[in-house]
Design goal:
Elements: H1 3-13, H2 22-38, H3 43-60, H4 64-79, E1 95-100, H5 107-122, E2 126-131, H6 138-149, E3 152-154, H7 161-174, E4 179-184, H8 192-205, E5 209-215, H9 220-233, E6 237-241, H10 250-259, E7 263-267, E8 275-277, H11 280-287, H12 293-303, H13 306-318, H14 323-335, H15 339-345, H16 350-356, H17 365-375, H18 379-383, H19 390-400, H20 404-425, H21 429-442
Parallel strand pairs: 1-4, 1-5, 2-3, 2-4, 5-6, 6-7
Antiparallel strand pairs: 7-8
Helix pairs in contact: 1-2, 2-3, 3-4, 4-11, 5-6, 7-8, 9-10, 13-20, 15-16, 17-19, 19-20
The protein binds guanosine-5'-triphosphate (GTP) and magnesium ion (MG).
The site of guanosine-5'-triphosphate has 21 residues, from helix 5.
Length: 453
């Protein structure tokens, strides 16, 4: 997320020294301007941003620190719009959210992602209402999503959308749900019929929030349609979906400021964990290459429980990390979402995130081979792979559809990895790790050994 923009910020910052003159400042802001425009940030937003940064830096004295401070300050200002940030719960539950947007923008997927986030990270009881009766398979799609994430659904193909909304609200109140998310039908374009339907749902559901889900890949259209929705039915938040497909990313920078409604979440993939909270200060840090430790901690703490983490750490230290632990860790990793978005949150790892790209660790051929291999092993063998003799190795290879050689290679790799992890977890191990990371980023685009690019 924001790789290109973060890079261009680095370039601009590099043009100005600790103490410098107006010419250098001009160079830096020109560079900034050029790259922001190239990233599709709206020209009016860019102009405003540059002008303020120049003024502020001059006022405080031209130099790197003041330039950075001005950039940080101005970015946060542009990213902030009046209203709530993140997900806000009302004091008397349920918090009711109406999900709106054009056809195919990602409403249903985002509804599922939000429910998943609230359930997993905030431990909330969530109800989803299927108020989309336009598209034939819409209810079925939502049913599938709800089954996957184990969230309750209220649906009834024979009722009108506003009747469903009414029933859902009653159910949510009676059964003490914390949150009710109402998924609605999309239209190809903004028309009276759609707005009428949304108005009727709004009247009965009295939502605390109305989210507009915009497809990031539609660029400036996302800004235009969000503005129309704001004027016609009054939205309180924007969610940018499919941000993973928008390599430039500039729309996210300008949209809150342009629409006058805060951007609340960003969809960064097709899977349920692929939703990021958009908090301006944190995004500014990320844009300036400082990562987002707060966001990372929030994401991981709810998913990786401390007890398991400690148990695994102690096993690693003792060199006892085995295939059962490995499978368990892989399951937990899945809940964190895409590797790329996680890497981007770690300070200094932005570059690596770019190299990893859209690699799907879970579905990579290596991971598939390892998984099917582990599947063919007995519980005892998973705990202690040294038990495997050649006959068993051949059997396992046959069971997993692999060559014996491949099985041997994976076993060896795993053993080495466990050894390495043991070493790292010892005193001074972390230092070595940092040294290694340092060397890797010095290589620039040299890539990570062993990882496909
Ligand atoms: N890559 C990517 N795909 C997404 C994201 N969000 C949604 N999609 C995909 O976009 C397509 C449409 O998503 P839906 O959630 O069905 O969209 P919708 O707005 O509910 O569509 P209608 O109900 O037909 O109006 C699906 O194939 C989703 O998997 C995202 O953040 N990233
Ligand atoms: Mg839908």
């Amino acid at each position: 997320m924001f790789d290109t923009i973060t890079d261009s910020f680095k370039n601009a910052i590099g043009k100005i020294r600790f103490h410098d003159d107006e010419k250098a400042l001009k160079k830096a802001t020109t560079e900034l301007k050029k790259s922001l425009l190239k990233s599709d940030v709206h020209h009016k937003v860019v102009k405003e941003l540059i002008k303020t940064i120049e003024l502020e830096t001059k006022k405080n004295g031209i130099g790197k620190d003041n330039f950075l401070a001005a950039l940080q300050h101005e970015l946060t200002r542009i990213l902030t719009a009046e209203g709530n940030q993140g997900f806000v719960f009302v004091s008397r539950p349920p918090t009711v959210v109406l999900m709106t947007g054009l056809q195919g923008s990602g409403k249903t997927t985002t509804t599922g992602k939000l429910a998943y986030m609230l359930k997993e990270q905030k431990k909330k009881k969530v109800l989803i209402a299927a108020a989309d009766l336009q598209r034939l398979a819409a209810v079925e799609q939502l049913r599938q999503i709800c089954a996957d994430i184990e969230v309750d659904l209220i649906a009834d193909e024979d009722s009108s959308p506003d009747e469903i909304a009414k029933k859902a609200l009653e159910k949510a109140r009676d059964e003490m749900y914390d949150v009710l998310l109402i998924d609605t039908a999309g239209r190809l374009a903004i028309d009276e019929q759609l707005m009428g339907e949304l108005e009727r749902i709004k009247d009965v559901a009295r939502p605390d929030e109305i989210f507009y889900v915009a497809d990031a890949m539609t660029g400036m259209d996302a800004v235009r349609t969000a503005t129309t929705f704001k004027e016609k039915i009054g939205i309180t938040g924007v969610v940018l979906s499919k941000f993973d497909g928008d390599s430039k990313g500039g729309v996210a920078l300008g949209i809150s400021h342009q629409v006058g409604v805060p951007l609340r979440f960003i969809g960064s993939g097709e899977k349920m964990p692929d939703l990021e909270v958009f908090i301006p200060e944190r995004i500014t840090n990320r844009l300036m290459g400082a990562g987002d430790i707060e966001g990372l901690a929030e994401k991981t703490s709810a998913i990786i429980d401390e007890k398991t983490a400690k148990r695994v750490a102690s096993k690693i230290k003792k060199g006892q990390f085995n295939y059962n632990d490995f499978l368990e860790q892989m399951e937990q990793m899945k809940k964190l979402g895409s590797m790329k978005s996680i890497m981007g949150m770690i300070p200094g790892m932005g570059n690596m995130a770019k190299q990893i790209g859209d690699m799907d660790l879970e579905n990579s051929s290596e991971m598939k081979a390892i998984k099917s291999m582990i599947g063919s092993m007995t519980k005892k063998e998973r705990e202690n792979p040294d038990l495997l003799n050649n006959t068993r190795k051949r059997r396992i290879a046959a069971g997993a559809g692999l060559e014996s050689m491949q099985v041997n290679r994976v076993l060896k790799q795993f053993k080495n990895a466990a050894k390495m992890a043991k070493k790292m977890s010892s005193k001074g191990g972390m230092k070595e790790m940092q040294k290694m990371m340092g060397q890797m980023s010095d290589q620039g685009s040299g890539g990570i050994p062993g990882l496909p690019r």
